[in-house]
Write a structure and sequence with these properties.
With 314 residues, the chain is mostly helical. It has nine helices and no strands. Helix 3 packs antiparallel against helix 4. The chain is globular, with a radius of gyration of 20 Å.
Length: 314
Amino acid sequence: MNTALKVDEHNSDHIIAGAISGFVTRFTCQPLDVIKIRFQLQIEPITNHHCSKYRSVTQAFFLILKEEGIFALWKGHVPAQMLSIVYGMGQFYSYHMFIKAFDNFLLLNEWKYSTKFIAGSGAGIVATIVSFPFDTMRTRLVAQSSNYQVYKGIFHFCSSILRHESPKILFNGLLPTLLQIIPHSGFQFAFYGLFNDIYKRYCNETDTSITNSMVSGSAAGLLAKTIVYPFDLSRKRLQIQGFENGRKGFGAFFHCTGFVDCLKTTFKREGGKGLFKGLIPSQLKAAATTALHFTVYEQSLVLMKTIRLHISEK
């Protein structure tokens, strides 16, 4: 984080910067997320198989354009934006507070990256719990076919859940999400800190530049996502249970009764590769989103410090 400006940052800066980061990242990378979710929910192989609807990132991209139009690549974008903004606010603010708390224990300075991992894991838990209903909403809106729309929008989704299902549905898949997010968020912050320091060391930088944030963020996102990917896949499949009508035209429907059953059934029916279905668009998205996430966050903090410094000098 840039420390050249001699102005104290406020705790609220991290909330605002996190919200800005979440918004920009989501808008830019939503098409990759749509393709990734479509891959994750497809039981048939992601290959040139005659029964497979989606066969590659490029083929899926143009097929969605052809069948559903360009706006389908931003399907579920409003709840996704809500998810990203709330998640970004919760994640960066809680991470900042955890790090501040750890600063009181001098012994932890000897385990710098371990501390970042723990703080990042805790931040991921907080952010996931407060934003999870938006994730379920986003997944179902993206998952439904344009020809068999169960939900017409956010308000219709909420009323349908309350009338026909249960608010508990909004937290379906929370367990695998938390199991995923604890190491994922931890690795993101730890790897980002590691690569950030390595970049500074070899480029003789004292502050975090935009290039440093982009390079360190993309590498951290790629590694962290690959490590925890099977948990992400099971989360998406759990979130569409009971949603058979909305999946007409996408092939066979995946049934499971829980997190462990989801992993076992996926492995039994689709093999080890099935647990990593949609990994490539997910890796592309993870590299891009994490790079943007950290870069926009860091630069937003710098901007707010600059504005505060300019005001204080008047």
